[in-house]
């Protein structure tokens, strides 16, 4: 026969233990919210920007808290759950203490192998087939190439004089009027494509002062106009300006920043800013076939050193999702760049609607690139007009009395 006093004492101890756990959890949550409030109240330049802290916040989720509670009360661990993966606290602690991610060997190798930083970055949203072995790669051209001392002869130029109209749309039902709301520019304006450079096979030499990524802007401008959206394509020769000043290739973003700021000051209607680049990866990683036609894949690059990069990433993620729905496989995903010694801002702190896009790789053709520009204009216009409708509905005064 059970002793009532013993049973009562046991229940009292168990109840006290549960209350302690609950109180500790509440204090923990209050502490987290207090620290978060303090950090977000600081000015951007004073905020903590540690990648490790960001990763820790990503891993500290409901599943991990549930496990922690289960260590004190094993009844929590007996409840059936449908989690696909269980977060490992040991991995998280090891990562925080060493800054090495056991699931990403780059976090160790990147410190030991010269040039490995080129592959640095975090995949925020992965496109089909995108992983840490085939991320976009940026390589600087040799000095003599930058200065046009060894510029290649051109070839395969037939049909490049006018934008493609194979995906042209009927007259738009709505337009921005005379307003230009999209600004397209090219920080690495001489990035080119091997099919048009006679005798050139080295990806590091795929640069040209005439046939280069700026031609993508022509197609994008036409395609956006077909959908009623006014744009300005700025073809400032950033490389020529670097040569005049004796600046290095990595200072391209400093030079293009001045160009963008001047445009913003001269036109308050500009609201979206797209910096177009070309990847150094080869054709098998930068090309996709959609409905029997070949497209140059695109990738969205976001600068992680920008304190407000989440806003830029939100736009990039939305455009990626829309491309995935209508042009499956075209987007390689959204990549966060935050490598030590790299720019990793890309002028995106000038606007929350600023993104950098990689169009294709060194082996792609302008037929493929034009189709990708049309696809981007297609999903962007859907996004733009939907956002405009929301803004108009918000601004309209209520008719209710």
TrEMBL record:
<keyword id="KW-0472">Membrane</keyword>
<keyword id="KW-0812">Transmembrane</keyword>
<dbReference type="InterPro" id="IPR010897">
    <property type="entry name" value="Spore_II_P"/>
</dbReference>
<dbReference type="Pfam" id="PF07454">
    <property type="entry name" value="SpoIIP"/>
</dbReference>
<protein>
    <submittedName>
        <fullName>Stage II sporulation protein P</fullName>
    </submittedName>
</protein>
<feature type="transmembrane region" description="Helical">
    <location>
        <begin position="21"/>
        <end position="42"/>
    </location>
</feature>
<keyword id="KW-1133">Transmembrane helix</keyword>
């Amino acid at each position: 026969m059970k002793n009532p006093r013993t049973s009562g004492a046991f229940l009292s101890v168990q109840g006290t233990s549960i209350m302690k756990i609950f109180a500790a959890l509440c204090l923990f949550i209050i502490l987290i919210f207090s620290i978060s409030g303090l950090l977000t109240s600081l000015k951007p330049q004073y905020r903590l920007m540690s990648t490790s802290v960001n990763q820790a916040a990503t891993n500290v989720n409901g599943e991990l808290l549930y496990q922690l509670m289960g260590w004190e009360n094993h009844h929590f661990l007996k409840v059936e759950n449908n989690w696909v993966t269980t977060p490992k606290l040991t991995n998280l602690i090891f990562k925080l203490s060493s800054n090495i991610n056991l699931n990403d060997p780059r976090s160790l190798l990147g410190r030991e192998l010269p040039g490995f930083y080129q592959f640095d970055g975090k995949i925020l949203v992965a496109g089909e087939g995108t992983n840490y072995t085939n991320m976009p790669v940026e390589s600087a051209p040799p000095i003599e190439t930058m200065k046009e001392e060894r510029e290649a002869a051109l070839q395969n130029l037939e049909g490049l004089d006018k934008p493609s109209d194979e995906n042209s749309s009927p007259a738009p039902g709505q337009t921005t009027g005379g307003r230009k709301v999209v600004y397209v520019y090219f920080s690495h304006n001489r990035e080119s494509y091997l099919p048009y450079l006679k005798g050139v096979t080295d990806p590091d030499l795929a640069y040209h002062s005439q046939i280069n990524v700026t031609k993508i802007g022509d197609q994008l401008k036409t395609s956006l106009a077909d959908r009623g959206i006014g744009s300005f394509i700025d073809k400032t020769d950033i490389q020529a300006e670097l040569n005049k000043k004796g600046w290095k290739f990595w200072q391209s973003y400093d030079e293009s920043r001045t160009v963008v700021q001047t445009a913003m000051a001269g036109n308050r209607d500009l609201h979206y800013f797209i910096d177009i680049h070309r990847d150094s990866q080869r054709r098998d990683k930068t090309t996709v076939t959609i409905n029997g036609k070949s497209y140059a894949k695109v990738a969205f690059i976001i600068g992680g050193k920008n304190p407000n990069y989440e806003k830029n990433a939100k736009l990039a993620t939305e455009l990626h999702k829309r491309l995935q729905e209508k042009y499956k496989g075209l987007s390689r995903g959204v990549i966060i760049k935050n490598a030590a010694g790299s720019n990793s801002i890309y002028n995106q702190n000038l606007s929350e609607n600023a993104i950098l896009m990689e169009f294709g790789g060194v082996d792609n053709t302008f037929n493929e690139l034009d189709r990708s520009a049309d696809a981007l204009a297609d999903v962007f216009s859907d996004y733009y007009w939907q956002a405009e409708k929301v803004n108009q509905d918000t601004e309209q005064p209520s008719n209710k009395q």
